[in-house]
From TrEMBL:
It is found in: Cell envelope. GO terms for molecular function: lyase activity. Its main location: other. Pfam families: Hepar_II_III_C. This is Heparinase II/III-like C-terminal domain-containing protein. Transmembrane segments: none annotated.
């Protein structure tokens, strides 16, 4: 019999704390009330209902009724109700689901009676025993006796299409999630018992969990055709009750419930009840005492976890199956098994194939090698990377202080700690999170950062930023800030957070560049004045749950996402061609398509410049790997302040190589007006051609591996083959997400305008379709595509991007001449733009790739450097901004050249995995005060596998030309040298002796 003698996840201390807190604090009391309300509703049906509602292996489960065709009544109309739209109430109407788009109920037969007719002597459903005469349409007899009838394996309509009503019900309304009877009831009983100690909840939960244990060992989702019965298994066709990915969540409910009910399993009432069930159904385990009941659950559930993880039946994203096995190991609490299972969690390995299996939990290797230096996993999508933090955090919490496996404190791991800092830099205008990759909806206000995570991080680590974030997420107040319900004195943390706010002030986010993850945000504005705005660029991982969107650009202002990414696809699977051809494709993002093909895979591009000053904020990134035929693929974007409430951006996108360049840009939902264009409507077809219908692939490979243009998903096309120079598009943005409270889709005064300079072969406007099964998503977004064609093209797409409200603040935009000596620069090495504002200010913006050449701009200014802005009004300078350059000013100016950049070599660096990292460098003579280096970036030459750009927190002179550069908790470690032998050390993104440079900025005014 089992050796476990205690609850080890819900320890006595935790339970005592929770039961005190639910009596003392209103927020904790509400948790208890919600749990009891839900538990009492389930309990009202009686123990027999709960015990017998656990269906056996012989019924398939599926998360989709039919993803391709939608509703059998309304087709794709059902998409507007979400990914998994069917409704049901498993307590009041069993085995029935309702189509919300039509109101029809399915299946049309009385499946409950049919199911009961097929139960054998052990209470298991057998199709050979079931009475098939009961498979008759009783809901809508006028449609015929077999219409909508499902025997558990789906209904085939007269077109040969199959709809899996019962499998869907079995998945969503019996087994899985809050809506699932089994998981929902177990969660409610578990929490109600933990908060109250009332045995009635433990009895009900134990009855249900014991029945799950009877059946769980034989569960195997692979017995069913995956092409019909869809499950989240990462195309492995593995899982037990459900697909292997979501199985990781379901089993945690089973494991934690067992631990919660563990002390109550000797209760005479539950023993008597289960002993009677055992006799009635001829079960091997007599269940005649608490030890037998515990043994049944341990054998049938807890001890199934380890082999199921190994067999990839419980196997999800990073941290999912690992935390499930950690929980099982600690709850089982029995040596040597517990140590063996936990050793496996930390053992290097991963998912192997033929057959699918997991060779090790890989936790330490993953944290070092797969989590980047900014704390993000390798998923690209903030939503999916958030899974890494939540699940590894669960493992950390379970192991925190666990006495049978000491020395496994993940909170001491620098990479795990960094994961808590991964998401707040993605916060945009304090309302949005970067929705790169498969994340969120199309432009919806959404914050990835979790309040409870920030409170916990501050409690664990003490960093002021976590207190500021917690305060911000709690609506800038300390009231009701607390630790979780299982903590003693959970509200004391509020005073500590208040102390930080008093000392450091509330959250005030500046521009940032996450060079490991590949994201930069240029921010301006003040929260209290409602003037927050930003431009951002994504240049990180573009595979997995990422999109092929390297150098994608976005903008927020006036409370809106003015150029929203499409976000999460309709379905993140191999069947969704809308995703494979369009949503993840390069053309659907604000970037450049080369040779009508999707970008190639990359981990992260190479930032070259970043700066954040009052007047000008700058990001410059090269992506040498996304198109093998290009020798340059580079975007330079500067955000230029107009006044306290407004900014515009100058955007320069250079592409050298290839024969077709398509610059794609779109605004939010709304009407579009143009200037400088004579658009002719294309009467039929798509952007792929007048004879190509929507969704019809005409290029690239078949299926989800498609690498073509995606042009066949752009509709309602208008073209201009003789576009003017300049030309403009102006989106009058609708309030899609009801930010202003006047109704979703209402008109606003917010605009996004783009003005493009330079010659192009063609300009087109076309509509792209966002995912339509995300409630609230716009139906269409209007795209502008500027096309250049030729041979071995060298393009410089030059744009001014102008968010404004009501009336424009820009009067005119024009390109001005750039000369080297008296020779006019006709190529793309340098470009200058003149922007005239409504208040009379004139801005000259100039950018050059040749920083050692002195240029004449508009026969007015001299410039030598990478980027400069010269602003004047009434002939007098307003401000001057010069980055990575030595000269910017009027032709007759006599100022001495500035120092454009510092250069040097790396002497040494922090080689350990540490919270404190530094570079020891030798700088060439420069005469710069070390304090001036804080906020700058060191760009180190390396092997090009990943970039080596490090924001500098502070600098100290430690000898002749020798400096210590502090880069904080950003590590130089790329990966372990040998994942199979972690003792062999690390691979680094930099090396001693490597050259580096630090671009400098010079501002006046």
């Amino acid at each position: 019999m089992n050796l476990k003698t205690r609850a080890t996840y819900y320890t006595t201390d935790k339970v005592n704390a929770a039961r005190q807190n639910v009596l003392k604090y209103d927020w904790a009391k509400s948790l208890r009330e919600a749990a009891e309300k839900a538990a009492n509703r389930y309990l009202s049906k009686g123990l027999d209902f709960l015990w017998e509602s656990v269906p056996a292996q012989t019924l398939p489960r599926s998360y989709g009724v039919n993803q391709v065709l939608g509703s059998p009544i309304t087709g794709r109309e059902i998409d507007r109700y979400g990914n998994y739209p069917y409704k049901a109430d498993p307590l009041d109407r069993t085995w029935k689901i309702v189509d919300p788009s039509s109101g029809y109920t399915f299946p049309t037969n009385d499946f409950g009676t049919y199911y009961r007719s097929g139960l054998d002597q052990n209470g298991i459903f057998r199709t050979d025993l079931a009475d098939r005469s009961l498979l008759v349409n009783t809901e809508y007899p006028e449609k015929g006796p077999t219409w909508g009838v499902d025997d558990g394996f789906g209904w085939v309509d007269d077109k040969g299409d199959i709809y899996t009503f019962i499998a869907y019900y079995n998945h969503w309304f019996l087994w899985y999630g809050k809506s699932g009877l089994i998981e929902g009831a177990l969660t409610a009983f578990r929490d109600a018992y933990l908060y109250t100690g009332n045995l009635k909840y433990a009895r009900a939960g134990t009855a249900m969990l014991d029945r799950v244990a009877d059946l769980y060992p034989d569960m195997d989702i692979s017995a069913y055709d995956r092409s019909v019965f869809l499950n989240s298994d990462g195309r492995k066709n593995t899982g037990k009750i459900i697909g292997s990915i979501w199985e990781t969540s379901l089993v945690k409910t089973f494991i934690s419930s067992f631990d919660a009910f563990f002390p109550a399993m000797d209760d005479p009432d539950i023993v008597q009840y289960l002993e009677e069930k055992s006799r009635k159904y001829g079960l091997a385990n007599p269940k005649s005492g608490g030890a037998y009941i515990r043994g049944n659950i341990e054998k049938g559930i807890i001890r199934q976890i380890y082999p199921a993880v190994q067999a990839a039946q419980i196997c999800g994203n990073d941290g999912m199956h690992q935390s499930a096995l950690v929980m099982a190991a600690v709850v089982y609490d029995t040596l040597p098994d517990t140590k063996e299972w936990l050793d496996f969690v930390f053992q290097t390995g991963g998912l192997a194939r033929n057959p699918f299996r997991v060779t090790g939990g890989n936790v330490l290797n993953s944290l070092v090698s797969d989590v980047d230096r900014d704390g993000s996993g390798n998923e690209a999508s903030p939503g999916y990377n958030g899974i890494w933090l939540s699940h590894h955090q669960l493992s950390a919490d379970i192991l925190d202080g666990y006495d049978l496996y000491p020395g496994s404190d993940l909170y001491k791991n620098a990479k795990f700690r960094k994961m808590f800092s991964a998401f707040y830099p993605l916060l945009l205008s304090e309302t949005f999170t970067l929705n790169a990759g498969d994340t969120a909806a199309t432009g919806n206000p959404y914050i990835q950062v979790s309040l409870s995570d920030m409170v916990k991080a501050f409690n664990k680590f003490g960093d002021p930023i976590f207190a500021q974030l917690a305060y911000f997420l709690n609506h800038n107040r300390t009231e009701n800030l607390h630790l979780d319900v299982f903590s003693y004195d959970p509200e004391r943390i509020a005073d500590r957070i208040g102390g930080v706010i008093a000392e450091y002030g509330p959250l005030d986010m500046k521009s940032n560049n996450m060079t490991g993850y590949g994201f930069a945000a240029l921010r301006d504005g003040v929260t209290s004045q409602h003037t927050l705005r930003d431009f951002w660029m994504y240049y990180g991982r573009n595979t997995g749950h990422g999109h092929r969107d390297t150098l994608n650009l976005g903008v927020h202002a006036f409370g809106f996402d003015l150029s929203p990414d499409l976000g999460y696809p309709e379905f993140a699977d191999i069947f969704d061609m809308h995703r494979a051809h369009w949503v993840i494709n390069t053309i659907s993002h604000n970037t450049v398509v080369v040779d009508k093909g999707k970008q190639e895979a990359q981990w992260v591009a190479e930032p070259r410049h970043f700066d954040d000053t009052r007047h000008v904020k700058l990001i410059d990134v090269e992506a040498p790997k996304v198109y093998s035929q290009t020798e340059l693929y580079k975007r330079t974007t500067a955000m230029i302040r107009v006044d306290e409430a407004n900014s515009y951006a100058v955007d320069l996108f250079r592409v050298k190589g290839g024969n077709d360049h398509h610059f794609s840009f779109h605004g939010a939902e709304g009407t579009v007006e143009t200037e400088g264009l004579r658009l002719v409507k294309q009467p039929t077809g798509t952007y792929a051609g007048p004879d190509v219908v929507y969704g019809q692939r005409v290029d690239g490979s078949e299926g989800p591996a498609y690498n073509g243009s995606g042009f066949h998903y752009l509709i309602n096309v208008s073209r201009d083959k003789c576009a003017g120079d300049p030309f403009s598009m102006d989106w009058n943005v609708k309030d899609t997400w009801n930010v202003y409270g006047n109704g979703a889709g209402s008109d606003t005064e917010a605009h996004l305008r783009i003005t493009m300079l330079g010659e192009v072969s063609e300009v087109a406007l076309a509509d792209g379709v966002p995912p339509q099964n995300k409630p609230g998503n716009p139906k269409l977004l209007r795209y502008m595509i500027a096309h250049r064609e030729g041979t071995n093209l060298d393009s410089l797409f030059t744009s001014v991007i102008e968010p404004y409200k009501g009336k424009r603040f820009i009067v005119s935009i024009e390109e001005v001449a750039v000369k080297a000596g008296e020779a006019l620069i006709a190529g793309n090495e340098a470009r200058a733009v003149k922007v005239t504002l409504a208040d009379g200010r004139i801005d000259y913006i100039v950018n050059s790739l040749e920083t050692e050449i002195e240029y004449k701009v508009d026969d007015k200014l001299m410039f030598k450097g990478f980027f400069g802005v010269y602003s004047e009004k009434d002939g007098q300078p307003v401000f001057t901004y010069l980055h990575d350059g030595s000269i910017l000013g009027p032709i007759d100016a006599t100022a001495a050249p500035a120092v454009g950049s510092l250069e040097g070599s790396i002497e040494s660096f922090t080689e350990a995995l540490s919270l404190n990292n530094e570079l020891i460098v030798v700088l060439e003579p420069h005469g710069i005060d070390p304090s001036e280096l804080a906020g700058k970036t060191a760009f180190v030459e390396n092997d090009g596998i990943r970039n080596a750009a490090y924001p500098i927190i502070g600098a100290t002179l430690i000898g002749a030309n020798r400096f210590r550069l502090d880069v904080g908790d950003v590590t130089f470690i790329r990966s372990f040298a040998d994942p199979s032998d972690l003792g062999k050390g690390y691979v680094y993104d930099i090396a001693a002796g490597a050259r580096f440079r630090i671009p400098l900025t010079h501002c006046k005014g």
